[in-house]
What does this fold into?
Amino acid sequence: MKRLFCLASLLMCSLLLASCSGTDGISSATESRYQELEIREYNGVRLDPSIGPRDNSISGVQQVNIAAYTLKVSGLVNNPLSLTYDDILALPAFEKLVTLNCVEGWDATVLWKGVLLKDIIDMASAESAANTVIFHSADGYTTSLPLQDIIDKNIILAYSSNGITLPAEMGYPFIVVAENKLGYKWARWVNEIELSDNPDYKGYWETRGFDNEAEITE
It folds into this structure.
């Protein structure tokens, strides 16, 4: 009788596993987050869905009217800019495989495509005193990165993830791919890039106690 009970338990576990996983071992919850036409592998690396497991934005997913959208470049620049979505897409494209690490404990490796932030900053001609880049988002969110990090790491402003147009959940039209930084540095729905001389600037979560460096530690 005990043996039959164990066999039944194993069978039940197998059935539960089958119901939660796809044919390649991916959970059905993860599978459902892939978008139509989203690629799932790049150079032998398995790609995660562009959309994370839950929305953790401060005011919900933003729906940006792209016809009225402009990206402002302001602050310590000699040539303030107001760029349309198409203006950004016309710049040289840059593609990168980068993992987003969320403070909630999950991560996602995604193929990002966009433009180098330093190319946009060069167009605006940063003043010599500028050392910090502050990102403003459509929902009022802000965060910052050191200007030198943006230059040295070829940080991109992405408009595509895994071969598709960036989903609204991940920041359409633009997300900052803050490589080697925790997820709260990955500003979404970016509508302004401000050059500053304040290296201690603190954004939304940083003013609430989160580390301003946000470095990924192994």
